[in-house]
Design a protein that fits this description.
Chain lengths: 406, 419
């Protein structure tokens, strides 16, 4: 049966070749869009690791000469100002807690580094942050092992305390207890021990759609020369506090530092902007791909319809020789199935190269596999739908009418 | 003769409504996507007010300082001190202007009757208003003297006038932003958000910054714009800028001792990520344009194949018609001519639909307010290119099958044995 169908397909190779090419490109388009969709959906379902509700961020612009490693006396002055600000904020009855942090969630800036996994020779990307002791309360971080930073870390002079996330702990220490271990970079020239004192379940700074990665918090004690002033303050306000409170915050902060500027924004608002950044391009490409598919579908229906009309004679002859409607129906759909499969095989062969060439390298092989599977199903579905009407048409061919041609 | 062809063409289109619909759908949809993409590029990079002299403008949008051992890199927009001391008086430059990067800390807040107002603030100088051609609704720009004397004056856009002064005349009135009070000297029409160089809601003199720390910075939030006498001077300006980079005296040469940067057009600067060219090397414009072009061609491939498919099917179906015409003495060329007229007509109708739809989609994007103050215009030149491509594909897909069919023996064609 298959051999026979293949022969039929080969007999009309010119027109079938064009259809195959069309299916091949359709598959690639669907696949490209789906890789993004699957990747983002996958990320969205992972735990976020923090709570953004009722958290406001205040980004500080200190208007200083801002040379990295600026003069020590300037820095101590800035530390003092920020301490006063945090104390001032905590006096408001609307504020539950306030903290200082280098990178706030949903902010596009990032601090990353590559670290070789012990002896495996593979680099692992890690995100870094510097946080004060209250960050855990403000962001509602979930400690799964050990503890968060606190006053007891003030005495740590010959090492730096760090809190890492679970992925980092698992990657570097496997099933071992990570508490007390050193995670400093062996490649650093002046190596200072970085001692793990706790593990949080996760902290995906980039938000719901960002990828999972290793994460390290350093402690910012707003005093030592190893740390810099936090870039932002974060404030947990009581539920029901409205935007009008921003003006009071601003007045309080401005009183501490006349010449600084402040950018106050609820995290929920930054989250919305972050979502738009991901979803709008996605929707635009999805829409274009959708229209392309509709176009291909219509074109395919037209071509199949035409070829059925053209083959009236052939079909009529088969009917006259006793083929049932059902068999005709299956023949037309079977031919279409073979053409589609050839196009898709070519597509899959191309797509398989992507992980090898590290093209669209952000996605892992699981995402590729799922996207490829959904794309295959979608294209088969599309061609089947396109084939339904023309093959129904073929079954209506009357033997007498067809033979009448000669 | 042509009138006859057109008549036949219309009859054929109407007889096979489904095929006609598919062809029109494919042509118009492809044109719409191309139009929207090109309008977007044009909106961001094209010469339009206030950047009417864009063809003579280059700038410095990014600088890098390197440590002696190359291990530390500090990259950022340039600093005031660097531009002021080393980039002035480049040969071939008519006007030079310094301006802060609006998107780098330019967001400021005002509180008016308990409401929070968000605005973008740009610090710039008097020369800025001579490079750009803003449309002033009232008043005029501030001057170099305002900049020198640190006068607290501001030019605002229409949207800001509406927010602060309820749309009433704003001349001479004051507004408070980020804790500073400015007197309004001019109101301009809104500048689109995506015009990244001139865009702001409020423009004020550089010298009104809260601290004077900017005067000592080699790197900081500033961009420089150079208006050249003519485009031909670009290579000379670029070269001279490179030699100026070598003259820089560093605050601490042990920490940083090398400055890297380029005088380039905005398109050159923005195309860097597309070609993966690092900040250390000149931008590769040719490659960026080629990449955009290839993406467009790839996108058009699927609709083109679809169109070819449909056209072949259409022609096959008309085998007997061709047979009759041949039998009555029509030459092959006459037949091909007829099919060409049909295909061109179809492409043109598809183009007209695409034109209307493009305007509709662009209007919708403009009105969605997703890009503040955006005004997406249809680019007629590109539209004609797109239409030419559609006609070309129509011809390609139509002529070959038509030619083959026209060569059939009339008897065969009449029987409909075409394959």
């Amino acid at each position: 049966m298959i051999k026979h169908l293949l022969k039929l397909v080969w007999n009309r190779k010119r027109i079938n070749f064009l259809i195959t090419v069309e299916i091949f490109f359709s598959f690639l388009v669907v696949f490209a869009v789906l890789v993004f969709a699957v990747y983002y959906t996958d990320n969205y379902r992972q735990p976020l690791g923090f709570n953004y509700e009722n958290v406001w961020s205040v980004t500080l612009d200190m208007k200083s000469a801002s040379t990295p490693g600026s003069r020590e006396s300037d820095k101590q002055q800035q530390f003092a100002t920020i301490k006063n600000m945090l104390a001032g904020l905590r006096e408001f009855s609307e504020v539950e807690s306030a903290a200082g942090i280098w990178g706030i969630p949903y902010w596009s800036g990032d601090w990353t580094g590559d670290r070789e996994i012990n002896g495996k020779g593979k680099d692992f990307e890690i995100g870094f942050n510097e946080a004060t002791d209250e960050v855990k309360d403000v962001l509602g971080l979930n400690i799964v092992r050990g503890r968060w930073f606190g006053k007891e870390d003030d005495g740590a002079t010959n090492y730096r305390p760090v809190v890492i996330n679970q992925l980092m702990a698992r990657t570097f220490f496997g099933d071992e207890d990570p508490i007390g271990k050193d995670i400093s970079n062996p490649k650093d020239k002046e190596r200072v021990e970085q001692r793990v004192i706790g593990v949080v379940d996760d902290f995906r700074k980039g938000g719901e759609f960002s990828a999972k990665r290793g994460y390290v918090f350093h402690r910012n004690d707003l005093a030592s020369e190893k740390v810099s002033p936090p870039r932002s303050l974060i404030i947990k306000v009581r539920p029901g506090v409205t935007a009008a409170f921003e003006e009071k915050i601003l007045a309080r902060l401005q009183a501490e530092a006349r010449d600084w500027s402040f950018d106050i924004k609820p995290l929920a608002q930054m989250r919305e902007a972050n979502f738009q950044e991901y979803l709008v391009p996605m929707a635009a490409f999805g829409l274009i791909a959708g229209f392309l598919l509709i176009m291909v579908g219509l074109g395919l229906t037209g071509v199949l319809w035409q070829s059925v009309t053209q083959r009236t004679k052939e079909i009529g002859l088969r009917r006259a020789k006793g083929a049932t409607r059902r068999r005709i129906y299956r023949q037309i759909l079977g031919e279409l199935f073979i053409i589609t499969t050839i196009g898709l095989l070519a597509g899959v062969l191309v797509v398989v190269q992507f992980p090898l060439l590290n093209f669209m390298g952000f996605a892992n092989s699981r995402v590729y596999a799922i996207s490829a599977a959904i794309s295959l199903a979608l294209v088969y579905l599309l061609t089947t739908i396109c084939g339904l009407y023309p093959s129904r048409l073929a079954t209506r061919v009357q033997p007498a009418e067809a033979l009448h041609y000669e | 003769m042509l009138k006859n062809y057109l008549k036949i063409a219309f009859k054929v289109f109407l007889r096979r409504k489904f095929f006609t619909f598919i062809s029109l759908f494919a042509i118009s949809f492809t044109l719409v996507v191309l139009m929207v993409a090109v309008s977007f590029l044009d909106h961001v990079f094209g010469a339009q007010p206030p950047e009417t002299k864009l063809d003579r403008t280059i700038g410095v949008f990014h600088l890098q300082m390197k440590s002696p051992d190359d291990n530390n890199t500090w990259s950022s927009p340039g600093g005031y001190k660097f531009f002021d001391r080393y980039a002035r008086n480049l040969p071939g430059v008519e006007i030079m202007s310094l301006l802060t990067d609006t998107f780098d800390g330019g967001k400021v807040y005002s509180y008016l009757d308990g409401n929070k107002i968000e605005s973008y603030l740009k610090h710039t100088d008097g020369e800025f208003w001579r490079i750009m051609e803003f449309t002033f609704l009232e008043g005029g720009p501030f001057t170099s003297d305002d900049e020198k004397n640190a006068n607290f004056v501001a030019v605002i856009n229409e949207a800001t006038r509406k927010k602060f002064f309820d749309g009433q005349s704003a001349l001479g009135r004051t507004l408070e932003v980020d804790g500073q009070r400015f007197r309004v000297v001019g109101v301009v029409a809104n500048v689109p958000y995506l015009r990244t160089i001139p865009f702001a809601d409020i423009w004020v003199p550089i010298s009104t910054m809260k601290t004077q720390a900017y005067k000592n910075q080699l790197l900081g939030g500033f961009n420089a714009l150079f208006l050249a006498r003519s485009k031909a001077d670009f290579p000379m300006i670029k070269e001279e800028f490179q030699s100026r980079l070598k003259q820089v005296e560093f605050d601490d040469p042990k920490e940083y001792n090398r400055m890297i940067g380029y005088a380039e057009t905005l398109f050159e600067f923005m195309s860097r990520p597309l070609t993966n060219s690092r900040q250390e090397e000149p931008a590769k414009v040719g490659r960026a344009l080629a990449t955009i072009f290839i993406i467009m061609i790839l996108f058009m491939l699927l609709p083109a194949i679809n169109l070819v498919n449909i056209n072949i099917s259409r022609i096959m179906e008309r085998a007997s018609e061709i047979g009759v015409r041949k039998a009555f003495g029509a030459s092959s060329w006459t037949l091909v001519g007829q099919f060409i007229v049909e295909n061109v007509l179809l492409s043109l109708i598809g183009g007209a639909i695409g034109f209307v739809l493009s305007r509709f989609v662009l209007r919708a994007i403009t009105e969605s307010g997703f890009f503040p103050y955006a005004d997406f215009q249809l680019n007629y030149r590109v539209f004609l290119y797109g239409l030419a491509v559609a006609v070309f594909f129509g011809l390609m897909s139509g002529v070959y099958p038509a030619w083959k069919m026209s060569r059939l023996h009339p008897a065969d064609a009449l029987k409909g044995v075409a394959r």
